[in-house]
Amino acid sequence: MNQETKWIFAAIVALTLLIAPAVSCWARPTWKDGAVTQVMANEQPPAIEIDGIRHTFMPKAMILQRQTNSTGGYDEDIIPLWRVFNGQKVEAMIEGFRVYQLVVVR
Q1: What is the per-residue pLDDT for 67?
Q2: What is the pLDDT of residue 53?
Q3: What pTM did the predictor assign?
Q4: What is the DSSP secondary structure assignment for residue 69, as one 8-state letter?
Q5: pLDDT at residue 61 above 70?
Q6: How far apart are CA 46 and CA 44, in angstroms?
Q7: N or C: which terminus of the chain has fewer CB atoms within 10 Å of its end residue's CB?
Q8: Which CATH number fits domain 30-105: 2.40.50, 2.60.40, 2.70.98, 3.40.140?
């Protein structure tokens, strides 16, 4: 390896180390809707598959069930993970593969 190649390699490594943290801070929670394909409630930490993509619940994640009331608004109740079943329509606040809030839509 000649001197020029070493400098180019060092510059690539340095730029990678500088850019990687900046790119990861751009991740923001977004809402995703889909259908539950698998619930892994017995794992630690608990996980869920939405449209075939596995997501892990964060420790303080909330699971809600939403129902439309007679006035056209919504009623939401906190439910345990074991009441989430395959095929249910859900909306999830997701950042990467982490779930912060899951809403089961009825």
Answers
A1: 84
A2: 93
A3: 0.71
A4: -
A5: yes
A6: 5
A7: N
A8: 2.40.50
